[in-house]
Amino acid sequence: MQISGEQWNQISSLRGSDLKGVVFEILRGAASAIQREESDDASTLDIVPRLAKLIEDRQELASYREPFSALARATGLWNYIDKAVASEPDLLLAESVTVPELDGITLHREQVDALNELLAGRNLILSAPTSFGKSLLIDALLASGRYTRVAIVLPTIALLDEFRRRLRSRFDSRFTVVMHPSEEASGDAPTIFLGTQERLIHRTDLGKLDLTVVDEFYKLDPSRRDDRCITLNAAVYKLLKCSRQFFFLGPNIDNVRFAEGAKWKFEFLRTKFSTVAVDTYDLRQIDGKEERLLEEIGEDGNWPALVFVSSPDRANKIAGKAAEGMAVSDYADAFAKWLSDNVGANWSLIQTVRFGFGVHHGRLPRAIASQMVRLFNEGTLPVLFCTSTLIEGVNTAAKTVLIYDKKINKAPYDFFTYSNIRGRAGRLGQHHVGKVFLFNEAPVHEDMEVSPTLFADEEDAPLDYVVQLDEPLTQPTADNRIAAVRHSLALDWPDLRLAASLGLEVAQRLKTKVQSALDSGAALVWTGVPRYPEIQAVVEVISAVRPASEFGAYTAKSLTYFVSELRKAKGMKTFLNLYDAKYTGSAESYDNVFRFLRACEYGLPQWFSLVEAFVKSAGFHANYSLFVQALSRWFLAEELKNLDEEGIPIQISERFHGGESKAALTDRLAELAMSGSAELTPFERDWIISALELKVPNQ
């Protein structure tokens, strides 16, 4: 049963008996289609969320709530059954698939099918649309009481925090959630290990796992050209070895390839079952696309709206242009002022935020990016310019997605990526019908096949992957290759694994550069706290192999300067204010400083450690460990960095940290926020209350 978006718009314009008559015919036609065994047809499913919106908006359709619930039951969209008016059979079904532990959420048919597979003990790989509700299945498994120790692999730290918040709110009394590297699981207590691949691969406290969950599992495929893919495969291999069951989730996958005789067996469930409808507006042929973009994001009927662009620079630039021409919110002044005081007044994003536009990309400090998403979901920033980093991870309450660019960085995105971007429009329970504005030609449809390295033939496994495993693969050729590379690099096992995480080929080049630098008397031999020339010597060797621009600097000299200034600064606010005062580059590139800070967390410390390993293998005594550990936390206390990952910016927490534990500092911040302390601005109090999810009386 096919009804176009234009026809739905016409139906929405009807009133009274005219509307009731059309809706009656739609209900009858849909019932007839289902009797012809078309309940899984996309156009039939599409009717349910559209009717839900109509019935919700129009009082004259109240009498149709019961037959609508019957339609929801028949299509399998059981979460749309209206329990207040449903017939007894429909109500019984809805109650039977409602999970009290998950705030009374009702599952739909395809969720129940997937859940039954998992509760039967089978390994499952699930491919489903963004609006399917895949995360609910994880929570339903945890609520079942059958799993005690669970590892969940997520692609970004922002997503770790989102999961941590949700799991803590639902399972705080049942599980300990371990997320930070400094945290350790206690014995056999029920534990959820949350981590990126880089964190989980190094954990030594996993023990025996009942379940391993991998979100966005398509990243296991090396053809996606993700630098972190090898480490992801190695981390998942490590987890599966000690886990009795696994559950992989991802969107829009058509097939999973695996070698005959692969170590792990699984069921693959592919579904197109979507819980929201989407209207697509084709703007490919129009003139003046930028003007049309500004027109659409200025229309409050499209809010909350995500604007997808190709890169952080594009996001900054176009958001800035939008802010020059209009204001879409009058409530973001406090956020803009905080950014000006705590980052720097020259940051162009401040003006963008002041006029109601948010920006989200991988360079932003995490707590600030998290605040952008929170204010977007609350409506304070009704328009959010984003790159693929948001599309791949954090959930938003977007009604509308405007796909403005056709590339990610400089490469055209494929149909798979396009589908994932498009899938962000609409949200179950908030926006039954989403909107997508398409400004460029959609990619040609191609089936998406995922070929994880850990499911492939061991003979074909990349050496970078094999080296990172806790145990060698069974093929003798793998042993021979490992022996050869160990001999060539002259590294022990831990350092060889470190080299593999950065790439064995590039490690070989780095070794050559280190040896050459040592021969010329470079200051690479040091221990403890290095002097400026010693930092510079290491940075110059690294930059000869990997451009300084990848670490957020223009040259090796400027990278050394940044590291030195970060180390000398009395806090994050001081460092950023200094950067702001001296910055003379373009507005779009201002946030390279945040790219530098990300590199200090992960990337630059590993390169320093590998240089140290090669210096020691050349026969010299060197120990960079104290410096590397401090660099990875920005030369600040570990507690401050951990709170930043949980949504509290360092510029706030560093003002109150006196050396106490993270728990004690958290309690102090909570007390200050709840008591209305003048040591915090009203905006900061609200930020802390939100980040810590504190209960405010009478709210």
UniProtKB/TrEMBL annotation:
Annotated ranges, domain Helicase C-terminal: 289-474
Keywords: ATP-binding, Helicase, Hydrolase, Nucleotide-binding
GO terms assigned for molecular function: ATP binding; helicase activity; hydrolase activity; nucleic acid binding
A Pfam match: Helicase_C
Domain Helicase ATP-binding: 115-271
Domain of life: Bacteria
PANTHER family: DNA POLYMERASE THETA, PUTATIVE (AFU_ORTHOLOGUE AFUA_1G05260)-RELATED (PTHR47961), DNA-DIRECTED DNA POLYMERASE (PTHR47961:SF6)
UniProt name for this protein: DEAD/DEAH box helicase
